[in-house]
């Protein structure tokens, strides 16, 4: 089972006490006659209540004791998935074909699949981080293999990203060289900025546009 974060647990205990409008002393009396000092230490995260007292605090809040210890189940599930995904991501970032796999990895689909599994098995796994880690890894590599098995989609995705970046550069280049103004007829026209050479812009525009055309042809060849 995942180790309890004392500070976060302390914050949850403090919230429960505040929600019931109890002083440290009043709260302690309701939790197995704990002292004011005990409660203060729990809330500061210096000491964790024993099992009996944790259960009593959870019962007072009307929640499962594991929710008290580890936080809301849905958020716990997401944190577990993100931890395993970050490990997977670091492993593939420096691999030769890692970029293609990571760029085509369906993160939203994978995490949704994991959340669905976690909810369906909530009663049996019950915050069990070992089972969650195992399932998260299983799903991540399963979804990653789908990307690896689809080189056509991977190549198209990479080329599309480059094409989009070139088109964005064209817009930025035009904004650097020209500005828009409204003429007497109310129509918007563009005018070269002072000190900028329109011939250089046209040459750069031609180079970038041709690159886009070549990439579009390459995309058609692999589709």
Automatic annotation (TrEMBL):
InterPro entries: Cro/C1-type_HTH, Lambda_DNA-bd_dom_sf
HTH cro/C1-type domain span: 13-68
GO molecular function annotation: DNA binding
Matching Gene3D superfamilies: lambda repressor-like DNA-binding domains
Pfam families with a match to the protein in the record: HTH_3 (PF01381)
Descriptive protein name: Helix-turn-helix
Protein's organism: Alkalibacterium pelagium
């Amino acid at each position: 089972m995942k180790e309890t974060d004392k500070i976060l647990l302390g914050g949850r205990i403090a919230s429960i006490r505040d929600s019931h409008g109890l002083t440290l002393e009043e709260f302690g009396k309701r939790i197995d006659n704990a002292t004011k000092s005990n409660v203060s230490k729990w809330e500061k995260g210096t000491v964790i209540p024993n099992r009996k007292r944790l259960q009593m605090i959870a019962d007072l809040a009307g929640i499962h004791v594991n929710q008290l210890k580890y936080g809301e189940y849905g958020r716990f599930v997401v944190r577990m998935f993100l931890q395993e995904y970050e490990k997977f991501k670091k492993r593939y970032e420096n691999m030769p074909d890692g970029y293609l796999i990571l760029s085509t990895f369906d993160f939203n689909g994978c995490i949704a699949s994991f959340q669905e599994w976690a909810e369906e098995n909530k009663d049996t796994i019950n915050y069990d981080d070992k089972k969650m880690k195992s399932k998260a890894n299983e799903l991540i590599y399963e979804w990653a293999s789908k990307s690896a098995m689809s080189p056509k989609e991977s190549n198209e995705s990479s080329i599309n990203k480059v094409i989009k970046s070139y088109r964005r550069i064209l817009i930025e280049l035009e904004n650097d060289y020209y500005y828009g103004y409204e003429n007497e007829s109310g129509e918007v026209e563009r005018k070269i900025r002072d000190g900028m050479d329109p011939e250089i812009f046209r040459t750069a525009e031609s180079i970038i546009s041709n690159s886009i055309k070549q990439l579009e042809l390459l995309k058609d060849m692999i589709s």
